[in-house]
Amino acid sequence: MKQGLFIAGSMVALMAAMPAQAQEAAAVEAEGEVIVVTAQKRVEALQDVPISITVVNGEALREQGAGSLVDYAGYVPGMTVISSQPGTSIISLRGIAPVGSAQAVGIYLDDAPVGSSSLYARSATYSLDLMPYDIAGLEILRGPQGTLYGASSIGGLLKYRTVAPSTTDFSVKAGGELFTIDEAGNPGWAAQVMVNAPIIQDKLGITGSFSWRKTPGYVSSVNNPALNDANDVEQRGGRVSLLWNVTEDFTVRLGGIWQTIDANATNAVISTAAGVPLGDGWSYNSFLPEPFRKSIDYYSAVLDYDLGFATLTSVSTYSETSTVSVQDASLVFGIAFPALTGGAVPAGLAPFSVALDLEKFTQEIRLASPSNDRFEWLIGAFYTKEESENHQLVRTFDFSGAPNALDPGAVVSLPSTFKEMAVFANATAYFGDMFALSGGVRYAKNKQNFQQISSGPFIGVANFTGKSDEDVFIYSVSPQFHISKDAMLYARVANGYRPGGPNVVFPGVPPQVKADTLVNYEVGFKGNLGRALSVELAGFYMDWTDIQVVQPFGGVTGQANGPSAVSKGVEGTMTWRPAPGLSLVASASYADAKLTADAPEISGVDGARLPSVPKFTGSVQADYSFAIGGDATGKVGVGVRHSSKLASLPSSSPDNLWSDAYTALDANAAVTFDDHWTVRVYARNLTNERASTQRSYTLDAFGTQAYQTNIPLQPRTIGVALDMAF
Fold first, then answer.
1. For 396, which of 229, 407, 456, 609 could close a Cys bridge (C-beta 3.0–4.6 Å)?
2. Residue 419's pLDDT band (boundaries 50, 70, 90)?
3. pLDDT, position 554
4. SS3 breakdown of the chain: % helix, strand, coil, rounded to 5?
5. Which of 469, 457, 498, 358 is nearest to 414 (CA)?
6. What angle do CA 441, 447, 451 make, to 5 degrees?
7. What secondary structure letter does DSSP report for 39?
8. Backbone angles phi, psi at 244, to 5 degrees
9. What is the mean pLDDT of residues 214-227?
């Protein structure tokens, strides 16, 4: 009986833990011109925003051959992405990773959030991962952004900015590429096209795009010869956007985005519990296929009306996200068949499938004053409604593939709803040319409903319902001292929150988990030191309290508010342009993220390192553009990125494992002819560095360390591409 309770507890633990306007403003302008962002929901120069921000140009992503978040995260200070495949990513900023089941870094697509804010939709793991072809740029905001961007942005915010339609010019862009990955048996390829057409000159324009990318696999199973090079991935995506200048003062932008990710396995490789690699070191141990599919349909309507004294903006979005994954849990639950049946059923196969569905509607209305040098203000209201489904199934078979007496081992359904209403305000007052004071507030109220329906010998019969409601108030304050026109000192105090929610109904389990909150204290400098050198530097202290964790409660596992933690450190970027066409960029981040109290619910002690975050990351990039002769121009670039090791669990846990520290070299080059044709070559991990970016134990149903799972740095990848633009 004790073993059965432990198995049931392990099963629930597994379920919980696996879980505007001026759109072109985010793009980096030509060398020497001003970089503008929309971080404060108005168009501003990056230099003038008192927030630590990195802007990544969409063109730079294409030059690097980036296909997903993990491909460029190493060049963003303080950002870490752990990804076992596109669409399955854990994102951290400034040492704040999603402990628990909800995300800690907010994800925005243009002007609206994507992904779930509830505890039961596994948002911590399944982040939006757009292909970069149709992206004008990204803004990565570090530190809490809750006053303007709401829930689940305690570590920061990742904002995708898509390409806006033009109402004046017809244009066509298209391209194709081939690439190879060491250890893969086949090459990969990608193709994309984008068309912009003015329908009514200066009034109505439309842009559409389609991308298709096939990445080959390089990991094979030692237990099933049919699963060879099984971690291949296929990504397909399309977008349509319509811009209508109804009048001189009124614009409408409508958009739709569709993307699908299909994979046949993760890129994880397996070692024994003692750390001995299986097979050739690029092997895993599944008996069964492990397909993964994620799709998103996203629709948006942005209306801007210039009232003279202010601009009224309405942002409406509706999205449907579906994720289906299968994991071979034979070595986790299949070995428990004899224990559950007194030896009557031998060990066998146990595929574990998860199907997630999310419908999300958001509506934001805001009123913003014109930009000026005296007083700027913004007020707004926000509403979201989410309906999510989380269906989980463990089948049980013998090794011939026939169902056994335990089938199905577990059937679980976790439907939930999340509704939130919020009002917010932000303002900046300028006191002459040297001093400014910014501040913001947000009040949010959410209501949630949750149900757990389960059956099967692994989990038992249950039908629990729960509901919760909570109020949250957050703020930000930022004084700024402008040393000169091109240099600013600033301080920032801001907090953020992750919503709580209802819990499983069981004796001793709290009925509701409350929001966890984080307060960020920051001082920073942004400045151009002459025409050739710019520096951005920030020091931070982040105090995280009531952290949401998964905790056992006498035989079952539920959510709880647990420990407190602090992340403190420094980050910075220096850009030097010593000669025309030459740019040198160095970035680094140091984050000391530790528990500040004992946390027995997660085997943590005071001073233990938080999981999933390295203490140090850094990169150096050099790019040189030059004329070749005639109508041809060239560009070459090289980059080095480094990450120190990170923990899989709090460092004091007996089940913690450390990843490898690694340094990777990347390079790219391009030649453009007549401004229309470009030939590109690129290489990522050119020296073929072998490293585990995350190493963790997989525990079986009895809590024993069954084996080690390692997510490797992608082997050397070399590609060649041809692009055309007219």
1. 407
2. very high
3. 60
4. 5, 55, 35
5. 358
6. 145
7. T
8. -125, 110
9. 96
Compute the distance between CA of residue 450 and CA of residue 388 in angstroms, rounded to an integer: 10
pLDDT digits (tens, 9 = 90+) for 547-590: 988 777 665 677 888 889 999 999 999 999 999 999 999 999 99
Predicted confidence (pLDDT) at residue 492 exceeds the cutoff of 50: yes
Peptide bond into 499 cis (omega under 30): no
pLDDT at 645 over 60: yes
For residues 99 and 608, give the distance between their C-alpha atoms in angstroms, rounded to a whole number. Answer: 14
Q: Is 74 exposed, middle or buried (0-12, 13-18, 19+ CB in 10 A)?
A: buried
Tokens found for residue 642: 């480094």
Written as one string, the DSSP assignment of 299-329 is: EEEEEEEE-SS-EEEEEEEEEEEEEEEEEE-
**Nearest in space to 144 (alpha carbons), one of 595, 516, 588, 589:** 516
Half-sphere exposure of 165 (CA within 13 A, CB side): 29
User: DSSP assignment, residue 164?
Assistant: P
349 is written with which tokens? Answer: 């196969």
The pLDDT score that the predictor gives to residue 4 is 35
Tokens coding 380: 């707004």
| pTM: predicted TM-score of the whole model, two decimal places | 0.91
C-alpha–C-alpha distance, residues 270 and 283, integer Å: 6
Please say whether the beta carbons of 72 and 91 come within 8 A. no
State yes or no: pLDDT of 27 exceeds 60.
no
Q: Would you call 58 helix, strand, or coil by DSSP?
A: helix
- CA nearest neighbour of 120 among 422, 559, 506: 559
Gap between the Cα atoms of 140 and 540, Å rounded: 16
**Quick one: three-class SS letters along 526-558?**
EEECCCCEEEEEEEEEEEEECCEEEEEECCEEE
Beta-carbon contacts of residue 559 (< 8 Å; ≥ 6 apart): 16, 100, 101, 119, 501, 503, 504, 513, 548, 549, 550, 551
Candidates 660, 19, 47; CA nearest to 392 is: 19
**Rounded to an integer, what distance in angstroms lies between the CA atom of residue 148 and that of residue 159?**
13
> What letter would DSSP give residue 2?
H
Higher pLDDT, 306 or 71: 306
Strand, helix or coil for residue 126: coil
The DSSP-derived string for 239-275 is EEEEEEE-SSSEEEEEEEEEEEEEESS-S-EEEETTS
Summarised one tens digit per residue, pLDDT across range 330-371 is: 999 999 999 989 999 999 999 999 999 999 999 999 999 999
Q: CB–CB of 54/140 below 8 Å?
A: yes
- Taking the C-alpha atoms of residue 714 and residue 267, their distance in angstroms, rounded to an integer, is 9
Beta-carbon contacts of 602 under 8 Å, excluding residues fewer than 6 positions away, are 99, 549, 550, 551, 562, 563, 649, 650, 653
Query: 177 near 192, Cβ under 8 Å?
Result: no
pLDDT band of residue 33 (cuts 50, 70, 90) is low
DSSP-derived letter for residue 10 is H
Q: How far apart are CA 271 and CA 228, in angstroms?
A: 18
Type of residue numbered 625: S
Residue 21, pLDDT > 70, answer: no
C-alpha to C-alpha distance for 569 and 567, rounded to whole angstroms: 7
Determine which helix (DSSP H) or strand (DSSP E) holds 436, and give its type and residue range: strand 435-455
